[in-house]
């Protein structure tokens, strides 16, 4: 007998007679201790109505369910406990996935609500989550990807790079050759502190396992302190068309703190959060962090260039005004 996260499997080959059984854990209704031929301890697995397993046909039951009976265990009680433990872990995993789907739906609902022309119904799974403020990203998956300084204050970081009037995000996405960029406006959400908005685009993919472009949704969340000295910018990114794209999200947090009149400390952490298990999980996690380290460097370089471009017209106007004030007056004609 073999037990995995999703199935209970059985294989035997006695006197050249092979028996194979595959039972999905989701189809199991009950697991009982039983007896085979009176003296042989056994385990009977009852399946829910309508389920039948795979392989050898199951036995029938008077109540309409079907069952599989397994016997000749070296230690029946040990196996029984292991099967119950597998079922308990499976139920916990399914509940966790439901919770993740509810939080994702809540995040999408909050971020896109202002831009929708019609009222969006909150899924029933989200109803229990809307009673208190929710964390926007998963703290436990974040790992440091950048720690340094940036030549502006936290307030300037928001107003120049992230405000509704800023074109930084759009220009950065255009520069990296993304398509169909649609960036919503910041708005208050009842479920989170600060403000949220949604970014949709077709993001360019460089991996040989991915299509040239993939639809991408990024939910953004921002909180600026009352004294405008601290800024927290968080993103949750879902890439839809890559392998296992529906299994995980990329979470990122930017912490900006003003340290002088023209500089701030900048700490960026990120990680891949899996909504359900997949076989490539460890590779995707490490790959996502490595990719984000490269992208953060490009984003910061582009941000500095954008800030110089935005501030240069003001600087030029200031220089021109200063030249006008210091220029000698034209000689007057006294006749």
Automatic annotation (TrEMBL):
Membrane topology: Single-pass membrane protein
One annotated Gene Ontology cellular component of this protein: membrane
Cell compartment(s), UniProt: Membrane
DNA-binding among keywords: no
Gene3D superfamilies to which the protein is assigned, alphabetical: Pleckstrin-homology domain (PH domain)/Phosphotyrosine-binding domain (PTB)
Main location: membrane
UniProt keyword list: Membrane, Transmembrane, Transmembrane helix
Protein name: BAG-associated GRAM protein 1
Keyword Membrane assigned: yes
Chain positions covered by the region annotation Disordered: 313-335
């Amino acid at each position: 007998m073999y037990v995995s996260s999703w199935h209970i499997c059985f294989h035997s080959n006695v006197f050249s007679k092979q028996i194979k059984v595959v039972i999905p854990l989701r189809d199991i209704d009950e697991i009982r201790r039983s007896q085979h031929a009176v003296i042989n301890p056994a385990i009977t697995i009852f399946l829910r109505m309508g389920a039948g397993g795979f392989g050898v046909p199951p036995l029938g039951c008077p109540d309409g369910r079907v069952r599989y009976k397994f016997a000749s265990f070296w230690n029946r009680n040990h196996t029984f406990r292991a099967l119950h433990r597998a079922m308990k872990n499976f139920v916990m995993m399914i509940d966790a996935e439901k919770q993740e789907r509810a939080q994702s739906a809540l995040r999408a609902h909050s971020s896109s609500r202002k831009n929708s022309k019609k009222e969006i119904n909150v899924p029933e799974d989200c109803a229990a989550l809307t009673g208190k403020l929710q964390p926007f990203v998963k703290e436990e998956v974040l790992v440091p990807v950048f720690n340094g300084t940036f030549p502006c204050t936290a307030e300037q970081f928001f107003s120049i790079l992230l405000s509704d009037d800023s074109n930084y995000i759009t220009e950065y996405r255009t520069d990296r050759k993304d398509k169909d960029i649609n960036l919503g406006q910041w708005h208050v959400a009842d479920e989170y502190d600060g403000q949220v908005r949604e970014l949709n685009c077709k993001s360019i993919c460089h991996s040989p396992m991915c299509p040239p472009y993939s639809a991408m949704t990024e939910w953004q969340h921002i909180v600026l302190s009352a004294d405008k000295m601290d800024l927290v910018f968080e993103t949750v990114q879902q890439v839809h068309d890559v392998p296992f794209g529906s299994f995980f999200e990329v979470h990122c947090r930017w912490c900006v703190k003003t340290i002088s009149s023209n500089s701030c400390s900048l700490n960026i952490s990120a990680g891949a959060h899996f909504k359900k298990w997949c076989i490539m999980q460890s590779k995707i996690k490490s790959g996502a962090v490595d990719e984000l380290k490269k992208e953060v460097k490009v984003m910061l370089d582009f941000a500095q260039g954008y800030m110089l471009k935005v501030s240069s017209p003001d600087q030029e106007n200031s220089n021109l005004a200063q030249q006008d004030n210091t220029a000698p007056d034209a000689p007057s004609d006294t006749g």
